[in-house]
Structure formats: C-alpha cells, structure tokens
Amino acid sequence: MYNVRKVQEDLIWVGASDHRLNLFENIHPIPRGVSYNSYVLLDEKNVLFDTVDWSVCGQFLENLKHVLDGKKLDVIVIHHVEPDHLASLEEVMLRYPEARIYATAKAITMMEQFGFAVEGKTQAVKEGDTLELGKHTLTFVMAPMVHWPEVMVSYDSYGKTLFSADAFGTFGALDGKLFNDEVDFDRDWIDDARRYFTNIVGKYGVQTMNLLKKASQLDIEMICPLHGPVWRNNFSYIIEKHQLWATYTPEVKGVMIAYASVYGHTESAAQALASKLVQTGIKDVVVYDVSNTDPSYLVSEAFKYSHIVLASSTYNACVFPKMQDFLEHLKMLNFQNRTIAIMENGSWASMSGNLMRKMLEAMKNMNVLDSTVKINSSLHTEEPLDALTEAIKQSM
Predict the structure, then answer these.
(1) Which among 246, 277, 309 is the end of a domain?
(2) Cα dist. 204→125, 162, 167, 247 in Å?
(3) 303 contacts 198 by C-beta, under 8 angstroms
(4) How many CB atoms within 10 Å of residue 120?
(5) Tell me: the pLDDT tens digits for 37-66?
(6) Structural domain containing residue 342
(7) How far is it, in rounded angstroms, from Cα 388 to Cα 339?
(8) PROSITE patterns in the record, alphabetically (predicted)?
C-alpha cells in the first residue's frame, strides 16, 4: 500500500518511516525510530529528490510509482550520498533508466566508490548552477561538511522551498505527521533534534553557520529535510536552535551533573550536590549516570546546559572508562564554551580529577572552576559541596 503526503500542490513526500532500526549509523539509539524523506516534484520535468535507506526501499518504490502514475522521471537530485539516502538509487535507475542524476562532482565520485553504475548518467553541478524544470527553477547551493564533504542543498524559487539535505533533520519516525505544526515540536521532538544535530553535525559548527548564512539570503516558505518533519512556519524557532548548537552556545543556564561511580559513593556525592544546587535557587539541574546513559544523550545534554559537573571515580589509575568515553566524544565533536566543575574519588591514588582537567584543556574556551571536590572513598562533610555550590552559583 502506498503512503504519500502532499507537501505543496506539485510536491509530494514519498519517503518512509522505520521503527525496526535500533541504532542510527550503527551507533546512536533511536527508540522513536527515524524517517527517510524523499520528495517528487511534478513539472515539465519530473524530479526525485534523494532516495531512502535500503530498509524502507520497498515502501519508497511503491510510493514513487503511485505518484508518477506512468509519467517519466527526468531528474534525480542527490543532495547527500550517505547510504541512508543513496542506497535505493540503483533500484530507481532500473525502473526509470532515462533519469539523469544531478549532484556535486565529489558526490558522483562517491557514488562510484559505493559501487553504483552511474557513468554517463550524471550531471555535476556547482554553487549557483540552476536547473529549469518548467515553472519551477532549482538553484544548487554547496554545503560541504554539513556533514559530509559532498553535501549540497537546493532551492526552488517558485515554491520558495529549501531542500536542506541533513540540515534541520531529527531522529524520530513521522508516523503520518509530516509538518512541524502537526506535532508539538518543543515538547516531543526538540530533544531528538538536538541529539541528532550535536552527535552527527555538531563537529561542523562553522560549516553549519556558513549554510545558515546562505539560507538567510533566500526567500524560504518551506524547509524539506531528509529526516524528520517538514517546516512550513515558525522558522525562527528551529533556526535559532541551530545557531545556538552550531556556535556551541548553551540553550539553558543550568547544570548537568555527569557521574561515574563504581559502588555508589561518587553517586551519593553527586546527588547531594544536585540537592544543594536546587536549594540555592538553580532549578535547571539534571543528573546522569554515565555507565547507563548512551553517550549520544550525554553529548546532547552537554550542548544544552551552560555548566557541567564531572564526578568520576579513579579506575586503574585512570578516569573511569565510561566518563573518559564521554569526554572523548565531546572532544571529537569540537565541544567548547562551557563552565566545568570537577569531583574526583579515589580510595588510595586519586587520579581522575587531574586527568579530566587535562582532557578539558584540549577543548576550546573551557572554564574549569578551581573548587575541585576531592573524595577519599566516601564524602563525610558538606563543606566541599557547599564551596562547589557557591562557586557554580557565582560563575552564573
């Protein structure tokens, strides 16, 4: 059974949602699933924008066949060749052999690397190139490293629509709801959108800002991403969020406490600190055990909050492995511009505090507070926590 949604009068969503996949890119948990968006534009020349992951290829092909309804497919625009968007290309080519593929030169090279027989079927495009379709005209805009080097976006001046590739995407299956105003985005989607951006695109903040600058010069009435809802209003909301994430600017003036505890003593101190922070008037406080929280969630929360407390046991004279993994993720994603407090625990040779401080020194603009809490096995007095609470409050 086909399942399509009309986006505009002659623009139709032909993508699909996937609830079977557990890990996006085989690393990030997606308990709410994910959508793979593809669009067909009907004009004198009919255009397919991107394909879908192999897991939903059957549904996608059925949707495409229904929308074209015997019409010729003239153009395939590939904005991004990551396999979750490219995998079904060959199936489309088999069914519509006259279609010509428009993509960046680097994207065409990558298609060949992935084993797709596209020779003689492609047209390389560059910044500012246009494609006349009839009443619609596409303009191609380069967006390298958002988040692969071959990425481009395209703009339809007639429909005032930006096909934004992975930009403005999010985790989460659509389940029939296509547009941003058909969901409560701030309640149900923003955490997945933040986790998607920070973990996948987060390292490329400068490149994202470059794309946002280009997009600001276009008259946009609709944004069609490759994952998640289509935006048809309230653009300032989602653009502001991306500006914050891309510039490593906190969304919330609050405290994230991430702790690594072997037998519960570090956890106890972290929870006591959380209580003190809330009692002193800092209401936005969240606490995470790094041992049972996937790093993608920890990264997302780190991008959200202005202050981070790292509380870690020493383990084999090193930082507790799960805490070290979290910090390595932050470093890999070019994380910066935060105030950090440190709590360390060690029964005989406490090393985690200094080692965490060294890891933070490799990141940009990290203000590490001097009031380190040192725990010897367990904490027996409130004074170190009181001093750290005051230091955090003053830094705000």
Answers:
(1) 246
(2) 23, 20, 11, 10
(3) yes
(4) 6
(5) 999 999 999 999 999 999 999 999 999 999
(6) 252-395
(7) 12
(8) FLAVODOXIN_LIKE (PS50902)
